[in-house]
Design brief:
Blueprint: H1 17-23, H2 25-30, H3 39-47, H4 60-66, H5 68-75, H6 82-90, H7 102-114, H8 128-136, H9 149-156, H10 165-171, H11 189-195, H12 197-204, H13 211-217, H14 232-238, H15 240-247, H16 254-262, H17 275-279, H18 282-289, H19 296-302, H20 311-316, H21 318-336, E1 341-342, E2 350-356, H22 360-373, E3 378-385, E4 398-399, E5 401-406, H23 411-420, E6 427-431, E7 435-437, H24 441-451, E8 455-464, E9 469-472, E10 474-476, E11 482-484, E12 500-501, E13 509-513, H25 514-519, H26 533-543, E14 547-558, H27 570-583, H28 585-589, H29 599-602, E15 611-616, H30 628-640, E16 644-649, H31 657-660, E17 669-670, H32 676-684, E18 692-696, H33 698-710, E19 719-723, H34 728-739, H35 747-754, E20 763-766, H36 769-777, E21 783-785, E22 805-808, H37 817-833, E23 843-846, H38 856-859, E24 864-868, H39 874-879, E25 882-885, H40 895-902, E26 907-910, H41 911-917, E27 926-928, H42 933-945, H43 947-964, H44 967-978
Parallel strand pairs: 1-4, 2-3, 2-6, 3-5, 8-14, 15-16, 15-18, 16-17, 18-19, 19-20, 20-21, 22-23, 22-25, 23-24, 25-26, 26-27
Antiparallel strand pairs: 6-13, 7-14, 8-9, 8-13, 10-11, 12-14
Helix pairs in contact: 4-5, 7-8, 11-12, 21-22, 30-44, 34-35, 37-42
InterPro entries: Glyco_trans_2-like (IPR001173), Nucleotide-diphossugar_trans (IPR029044)
Pfam family, one: Glyco_trans_1_4
Protein name: Glycosyltransferase
C-alpha cells in the first residue's frame, strides 16, 4: 500500500491518508498522532486491531461481520485483517463494502460490454470493483441494489467538482439529523426511520452514518425490513427452501435472497403483493425489458402499485373531458379566424360533407383538423342546418367551401343528402363537426378504398374525449338491435386493432365510394330525422355487393352527441328500429343472437371467413430469429389465404407497441396484453369461434394441453394443428455430447417425451422430410412438411461490390446454439483466416442479442463487428460477400440459410446444416466439419476469393429458392394442410 491517495486514483487497495485522518481524527488526536505522515504507520500498528478501514472504498467492520469465516481466519492469524483477506484472497468472491456487490455490477456491465464498453476482465482491472471505481462510477453505472447514482445526485443536490457519485457518497461526512434521501428503489430511509424510532435515535446520536448504513451493517439483519413492501417474517414463512441458506450465512437476510433470486423468480415479497400478476402487465414488462427499471419489484415501488390508467377513472372523467374539449375549441377559435383555412381546388381527391347546426368554434376546430390532416385537394361541403350563430358567415373565415343553407334545422340525414348533390370526387366522407382527426386518418381511409376494389365504405376507430372507445366498428344483432363494438374499452385493446369487415360504422366518420352511394340515393329519407340511417346505408351497400370495412388506422376523436339537437326519444329509436327490421329481414336472419358470448362472431360481417387461433412462444417478430421468422411467414400466408388469424403468445411480449407496427398483416388480431394463464378464459369467451388452432412448437402443445381439455366444448369442431417447427431431442443430445455430458435418457427416450402430446393433433407439421420421418417412426401418420417461404431478390449486387463475412441469427440465452457456434468460430476459425484474408475483412454478427447474455468473448476479437438487431435485413445481406453458419448442434432447418440464399449471398455452413437443408455440398453451398477448423477456414477462403466459385454457388442456390420456397407454393401447402372447404 502507498502512503497517500488522490481522488483521481480511487484505488481500493491503497491507504488513503487524507480520508483516514478525517474519518478517525478524534482517536488520532487523542493518542497524539498529529503528523499525517504517521497515519499509515498507526493504521498498521493499531488501526487494524481497531477494525479501522484503510480507505473509503473498504469497510473493515462490515466485512468481518458479513463474512464470519474471514473473521475466524483473522483471529487464527491467517490474515492480519479483513482488508488483507480481500486483497489477497477475496477480491473475486467477496464484496468490500455494503454499497457494492461484485456480481450485481458484473451483470449490469454485460450490456454495456456488448456495445463496446471496457470489460471488467480486461487487462489492468483486478476485479469488477476496480473497474467500477476507475470507469463505471464515472459512467453513472450502479454498483448495487442500494446505490443508484442518479438517485444519489438528486438527493445530494449537486455533484462535487472532480468527483463521481459513488466516490462522493463515500467521502461525504453525514450530517446528524439531516433528511434521509432515497438512494435506490430498494430501500426507503424515511419509512425505515419512522418504523424503527430506536434507529432514528441512534442515528441522531452519531452511532450510524445513515438509515441505510444501519440496515446494511447492524448485527440483527433479519429484524428489520427495508421498505413497506418487503417482510422478513412473511418471506421466511412461505419460502422454506431459503431458510437454511439464510441461517448458515449464505445470505445476510431474506431480503438479500429476494434481491438476488426471489424477485426474478417473481416470489411474493409480502402477503399482499403478487409480483407474478403484476408482471403480466404488458406496460410493466416493456419498461423492465427496455431497462427503465431493473425488475418488476422496482417498477412496483416506483409506480405505487399502479402500472397503468384505470378504465373506471376514465369513464367517470367524461363530463370533465368534454368540458376541456369545448374549452380548447374556444381557445383555438381566435387562431382560426382570418381565412387561412383554405379548401379551394378544381379536382378533389375527396368530397367531405359536414352537416352543422351552430357550434361555430367546434366546427372551425373540425375544419382545421381536416385541413391539417390531408394536404391533397379536398372539396368541403358545409350544410348549414338553420344555424343562428357565426356559422351563418363561415365563408368569411374558411375559403373554398361549398355551402348549402336551410332556414331551419333539417337534421343530419336530409342535410347530408342535400350535400351529396354537390359532391364532385370519387369518394365521399360524412364527417361530424364535433370531431378531430388523428394523424393519417384521411390518407389511410382513402388508401383502403383505392387498394380494395370491393370495399364500398370505410369507418373509423372512434375515441371519445375521455380517451375510451365509442366504437371499433358496430354490430347488428338478429333482433335488429345494434351495438358499438368495445364501447368503454381502451383504444389500445387488441380486439380493436385489426382490419375487418363489419355490419356498419358510425356516420361521425364514414367514407363511401360516391358511385354506389349515388346509386343508392344516399341515406333513406324514411329514417328522418335521425337514427339507423347509417346502419341502413351500410347494409344496403353490403346487399349490393360492397364491403364495409373498419380500419383501426383511421382514428377520430369524437365529442359524441355534440351536434344532436333533436329529441333523443325512445319512440324515435323504436320506430326506426322497426323500420330497419322490416326493410332488412333477410339480412338479419343470418345474424347472431344478442349474446356477449357471440361478440367475436358478431363483430365481423364476413361469415365465409375461417378463423385460426395461432399460438406461439412469443409474438413472432422476424428480428427474434430462432424459428420466429417462419412463424411470421405462416401468419402472413394464413392472412393472404383470407383467414382471420388471432395471434396469441404463451409469454406476454416485452417488446413495445411500436415494435408491432408493420410486422403482421393489419387483418391479424394480435393479443399482446395476455399470455398462457389467460388463454382458457380467452377461448371460453369465444365458443365455437375457431375453425382451427395452430400450435407452433411441440413444447407449446405440452403447455396448452390442459387448457385444450378444459376448453373442449368451446373448441368443438375445431381442428388442432401442431407445428413441431423443429424436433428438439437430437439437438439436445448433440449439445450434451459437445459438452461432454452424459445422461440417463437416450435420444429415443427424449423423443418419446417430446412427442407425448402429439396424439391430440389432427394435423402434425415438420419442417423437413428428415424430421417428418422421425415423427412417423413414432406412429404418427398425419404428418405434413412445411419449410420456409422465400422469394429470390429481384436484384442483388455482384461479387466485386461485396465484402466481409456475415452471420445472422438470434442469441436469446447463454445456451443458444447460435452463441455456441459464434464462440467456436471466433476462437478456432477466425484466427486461421488471418493468413488468407486481408486484415480489414470483418465478421459481422447481425440479429437479436439478449442484453443479459455475456458477449464479451466476441467483442474482444479485432475482426468482429456486433451489428445487433436491424429493421431491414436486405441491405445487410447486400453488402456482404460470404455467409457463415458454423452451427454445431441444431434442429429443423435454419431460416437464415434460405434467407441469405434468397438475397444472393452464398454460404459456408457446417455439415450438419447441409444435411438438414438437403442441399448439395459444393453446388448449392459449401460445407465443412466443425471438427476441423482449418477445413472450415479454407472453405471460407475459397468462396471469398474465388469469383467463379462464388457465382456458381449463388446461381444454384437462387434457383433452388425459386423452385422450392416460393410464396405461392407455400400458401398452397398451408391450404392443403388445413383442408378448409
Amino acid at each position: 500500500m502507498s502512503g497517500g491517495m488522490t481522488n483521481e486514483t480511487r484505488d481500493w487497495a491503497a491507504f488513503d491518508r487524507d480520508w483516514y485522518g478525517a474519518r478517525y481524527g478524534e482517536i488520532l488526536r487523542r493518542l497524539g498522532v498529529d503528523d499525517p505522515a504517521a497515519y499509515h504507520g498507526f493504521y498498521k500498528d493499531h488501526g487494524v486491531a481497531l477494525r479501522h478501514s484503510p480507505n473509503p472504498y473498504f469497510d473493515e467492520a462490515w466485512y468481518l461481520s458479513r463474512y464470519p469465516a474471514v473473521a475466524r481466519a483473522v483471529e487464527d492469524g491467517k490474515f492480519c485483517s479483513g482488508f488483507d483477506h480481500y486483497c489477497r484472497a477475496g477480491l473475486a468472491t467477496h464484496n468490500p463494502h455494503w454499497l457494492y456487490n461484485e456480481n450485481f455490477y458484473r451483470a449490469r456491465l454485460r450490456a454495456a460490454t456488448a456495445s463496446g464498453a471496457t470489460s471488467a476482465d480486461a487487462d489492468g482491472f483486478r476485479n469488477g470493483y476496480d473497474h467500477y471505481l476507475r470507469v463505471g462510477d464515472a459512467q453513472f453505472l450502479s454498483g448495487s441494489w442500494f446505490f443508484d447514482p442518479m438517485a444519489y445526485l438528486a438527493g445530494a443536490g449537486v455533484a462535487q467538482r472532480g468527483s463521481t457519485p459513488y466516490d462522493q457518497a463515500l467521502r461525504t461526512a453525514p450530517v446528524p439529523g439531516a433528511s434521509q434521501h432515497r438512494l435506490s428503489w430498494y430501500f426507503d430511509p424515511e419509512w425505515y426511520l419512522q418504523t424503527y424510532p430506536d434507529v432514528k435515535a441512534a442515528l441522531l446520536a452519531g452511532e450510524w452514518r445513515s438509515a441505510l448504513h444501519h440496515y446494511q451493517t447492524n448485527d440483527n439483519p433479519g429484524q428489520y425490513n427495508p421498505n413497506p413492501f418487503f417482510s422478513e417474517e412473511f418471506y421466511s414463512r412461505v419460502n422454506h427452501d431459503v431458510v437454511d441458506a439464510v441461517e448458515d450465512g449464505r445470505f445476510r437476510n431474506f431480503y438479500e435472497h429476494f434481491l438476488i433470486f426471489g424477485m426474478h423468480e417473481l416470489r411474493r415479497p409480502c402477503a399482499d403483493i403478487d409480483l407474478e400478476v403484476y408482471y403480466r402487465n404488458a406496460h410493466v414488462q416493456h419498461e423492465v425489458e427496455r431497462g427503465d427499471y431493473h425488475d418488476a419489484f422496482a417498477h412496483f415501488i416506483a409506480h405505487a402499485r399502479k402500472p397503468g390508467a384505470e378504465v373506471s377513472f376514465l369513464k367517470d372523467s367524461e363530463p370533465l373531458a368534454k368540458k376541456i374539449h369545448l374549452d380548447m375549441c374556444r381557445i383555438r377559435l381566435p387562431l382560426l379566424l382570418g381565412g387561412e383555412i383554405d379548401f379551394s381546388c378544381d379536382s378533389p381527391d375527396l368530397s367531405v360533407i359536414m352537416v352543422v347546426h351552430n357550434l361555430f368554434a367546434m366546427t372551425l376546430n373540425a375544419l382545421a383538423s381536416l385541413r391539417a390532416n390531408y394536404n391533397g385537394p379536398l372539396q368541403v361541403i358545409v350544410v348549414d342546418s338553420g344555424s343562428t350563430d357565426s356559422i351563418r358567415q363561415i365563408e368569411r373565415h374558411v375559403r373554398g367551401l361549398d355551402v348549402v343553407r336551410f332556414p331551419a334545422n333539417v337534421g343530419f340525414l336530409l342535410g347530408a343528402n342535400a350535400g351529396l348533390e354537390k359532391v364532385r370526387a370519387a369518394f365521399t366522407l360524412y364527417l361530424n363537426n364535433d370531431t378531430e382527426l388523428m394523424p393519417g386518418a384521411i390518407g389511410h381511409a382513402l388508401a383502403r378504398l383505392r387498394n380494395a376494389c370491393t370495399t364500398g365504405a370505410v369507418g373509423a376507430k372512434l375515441v371519445r374525449t375521455n380517451g375510451l372507445l365509442q366504437e371499433a366498428g358496430s354490430i347488428i344483432w338478429r333482433d335488429g338491435s345494434v351495438q358499438g363494438y368495445l364501447r368503454d374499452q381502451s383504444p389500445d385493446t387488441p380486439e380493436a386493432n385489426f382490419v375487418r369487415s363489419v355490419d356498419y360504422c358510425s356516420g361521425a366518420f364514414l367514407m363511401v365510394r360516391t358511385a354506389p352511394l349515388r346509386q343508392l340515393g344516399g341515406f333513406d329519407p324514411a329514417y328522418a330525422p335521425a337514427y339507423f340511417e347509417e346502419t341502413d346505408l351500410c347494409v344496403r351497400l353490403r346487399e349490393a355487393g360492397w364491403d364495409v370495412v373498419y380500419d383501426p388506422a383511421v382514428v377520430v376523436l369524437h365529442y359524441e352527441y355534440g351536434t344532436s339537437s333533436f329529441v333523443s326519444g325512445a319512440s324515435m329509436i323504436a320506430r326506426n328500429n322497426a323500420l330497419f327490421r322490416s326493410r332488412h329481414a333477410d339480412y338479419l336472419r343470418n345474424k347472431a343472437f344478442a349474446n356477449t358470448l357471440l361478440l367475436a362472431q358478431a363483430r365481423s360481417a364476413d361469415r365465409r371467413q375461417k378463423h385460426v387461433l395461432f399460438i406461439e412462444d412469443r409474438l413472432p417478430y422476424r428480428f427474434l430469429g430462432s424459428g420466429f421468422p417462419r412463424a411470421n411467414d405462416i401468419v402472413h400466408a394464413l392472412a393472404a389465404l383470407g383467414h382471420h388469424v388471432t395471434l396469441y403468445p404463451v409469454f406476454r411480449p416485452t417488446e413495445g407497441r411500436e415494435d408491432m407496427h408493420g410486422h403482421f398483416p393489419d387483418t391479424v388480431e394480435v393479443i399482446w396484453d395476455r399470455e398462457l394463464p389467460e388463454l382458457e378464459e380467452f377461448i371460453k369467451s369465444r365458443p365455437g369461434y375457431y375453425d382451427a388452432v395452430w400450435i407452433a412448437r411441440t413444447h407449446n402443445a405440452d403447455r396448452v394441453a390442459p387448457v385444450l381439455v378444459s376448453c373442449a366444448q368451446a373448441l368443438a369442431g375445431s381442428q388442432l394443428v401442431v407445428d413441431t417447427e423443429a424436433v428438439a431431442a437430437p439437438r439436445t443430445h448433440m449439445h450434451r455430447v459437445l459438452k461432454g455430458e452424459g445422461g440417463e435418457n437416450t435420444v429415443a427416450d427424449m423423443l418419446e417425451q417430446e412427442f407425448r402430446h402429439l396424439f391430440m393433433a389432427e394435423k402434425i407439421i415438420a419442417v423437413n422430410e428428415k424430421e417428418a420421418s422421425i415423427i412417423r417412426a413414432h406412429g404418427f401418420g398425419n404428418v405434413s412438411v412445411l419449410g420456409h417461404m422465400q422469394a429470390p431478390a429481384a436484384t442483388s449486387p455482384g461479387w466485386e461490390e461485396r465484402r466481409d463475412l456475415l452471420f445472422v441469427g438470434a442469441v436469446h440465452d447463454p445456451h443458444a446454439p447460435n452463441l455456441d457456434s459464434l464462440l467456436w468460430f471466433a476462437e478456432h476459425v477466425l484466427p486461421l483466416l488471418d493468413a488468407s484474408l486481408p486484415p480489414d475483412v470483418r465478421f459481422t454478427i447481425c440479429g437479436y442479442l439478449d442484453r443479459r447474455v455475456d458477449l464479451s468473448g466476441l467483442v474482444a476479437h479485432p475482426r468482429v463487428s456486433l451489428l445487433g438487431r436491424v429493421e431491414d435485413i436486405g441491405p445487410v445481406y447486400a453488402r456482404h460477400r460470404v455467409f457463415v453458419a458454423p452451427t454445431r448442434f441444431a434442429a429443423g432447418i435454419p431460416y437464415k440459410l434460405h434467407e441469405a440464399a434468397a438475397h444472393g449471398l452464398p454460404c459456408v455452413a457446417s455439415a450438419l446444416l447441409c444435411e438438414q437443408m438437403g442441399w448439395r455440398a459444393g453446388q448449392d453451398m459449401l460445407c465443412a466439419s466443425v471438427a476441423d477448423p482449418q477445413a472450415f477456414a479454407d472453405a471460407i477462403t475459397h468462396l471469398y476469393t474465388g469469383q467463379e466459385l462464388w457465382e456458381h454457388i449463388r446461381s444454384n442456390a437462387l434457383a433452388r429458392i425459386a423452385r422450392e420456397n416460393g410464396p405461392d407454393l407455400y400458401r398452397e401447402t398451408i391450404a392443403a394442410i388445413l383442408g378448409f372447404s
